[in-house]
Amino acid sequence: EDQVTQSPEALRLQEGESSSLNCSYTVSGLRGLFWYRQDPGKGPEFLFTLYSAGEEKEKERLKATLTKKESFLHITAPKPEDSATYLCAVQAEYGGSQGNLIFGKGTKLSVKP
Amino acid sequence: KAGVTQTPRYLIKTRGQQVTLSCSPISGHRSVSWYQQTPGQGLQFLFEYFSETQRNKGNFPGRFSGRQFSNSRSEMNVSTLELGDSALYLCASSLERTSDEQFFGPGTRLTVL
Pick from B56, B58, B106: which is nearest to A43 by CB? Predict the structure, then answer.
């Protein structure tokens, strides 16, 4: 069964304290892995798409990496405005959920000044 | 450009009733996907429409249905509402495919009493 597990469920950081969020996945052929950010009361906001192991993408203080079993979202020197829930999703190439986006339950990040 | 709009934003219904939610995608976007978000299950894919045809479907009962119009606007319908249908329903649009960058609307908060 295709599934996505994110850890930790919640993470509290001090401003400037770098850390990483994990997304482990099992999928019948990976078509793509997606990272989103969701603020309270809003819909998710697209951050990155990764397609193959070894791929990396960066945006401001965020860097996403991908291996054959997991993805990491590295946050360097976070600021309070980075506080949000970060969602990971995969899209399967084959199988019953082919083409669908399967989301993890997210990591709720809080950055204190 | 204008984002994805969803109406209504909030809805209260009673068990057994039916409900219709509306989504207007970003201009030029032809793919519209619907998701259900709950604290327990997270974000779950309902279905995707492209050119007025359902292209993918998630693992939800037949009470959940949708359609897309020629202008790409989409509606989803839930019949015979159950308490467990209380959730945030999100619509997302993309240019052609769900693997393209998806833009989410703010969601419709449905409460079933």
Answer: B106
